[in-house]
Amino acid sequence: MPARPTPPAAAAKTVLVFGGTTEGKQVAAWLGNTDYTFWYSTKTPVEISLPANGRYRWGALTGAALVAFCQLHQVGCIVHASHPFAEQLHATVAEASRQLRLPVLRFERQYPERLVHPLVHYAADYEEIIDQLLAAGHAPALALSGVQTIGPLRRYWQQRPLFCRVLPREASVALARQAGFPLANLITGWPGAELAEEVALIQRTGAQAVITKESGESGFLSVKIAAALYAGVPIFIVRRPALPAGFRPITRADELLAHLSSNLHGPSPDS
């Protein structure tokens, strides 16, 4: 069994992990096998069991608040493993990184290759999807894009019936209610990992189109696409936003540890 990487005794820098995702949990697990102190941060409260060297915080951070947090806790590196559609967080992290000259490691999820198929449509945003749905007369539609997209899809569901699946959490239902979404069309449930589950949902709702976002394999995007194709209905997918150019991509634990060793402590004498 390999030895646990141990920071030099003089190092006081910590790691800040933005999570709330499968990837965030994976980063926390990797860091749990080291002696690096780290903070795990999410926008909303989540239940997570962290190793002894991890601490948890939640709540959205403004740019100024993030800078202050990093200074207070001597953050030497940010590992950005949050949702690919957390655009505000992307921008906030990029600005804090610029101000403090902090490296940002981006642990990105895996994405299926974009398909060229008559039933698969990629769009820049939900407004583009709404225009296409209304022009083609697709109704009802089934949104598998989460509660945060109820607002952006308002123009559609105010004119045509829309079913929307949200996570089975009180907060999600409360957000839908606050938006004025018809609760009779709200479906609470976890994303289906099995093709049969998603096909059954499409058939049960009578959906003539599916709406989702390019959330990667962690969001079961391949399953959603396959279900729509099996059911013979078009699927409309919002393309994931581009990440700031300064983020450094990582995909493996050894890459993370190599970056942290260099960023927090500088290169070794032998390097």
TrEMBL record:
Keyword Isomerase: no
GO biological process assignments: cobalamin biosynthetic process
Entry keywords, A to Z: Cobalamin biosynthesis, Oxidoreductase
Taxonomic superkingdom: Bacteria
One function term, GO molecular function aspect: precorrin-6A reductase activity
PROSITE patterns the UniProt entry points to: COBK_CBIJ
Pathway recorded for this protein: Cofactor biosynthesis; adenosylcobalamin biosynthesis
One Pfam family it belongs to: CbiJ
PANTHER family: COBALT-PRECORRIN-6A REDUCTASE
Protein's recorded name: Precorrin-6x reductase
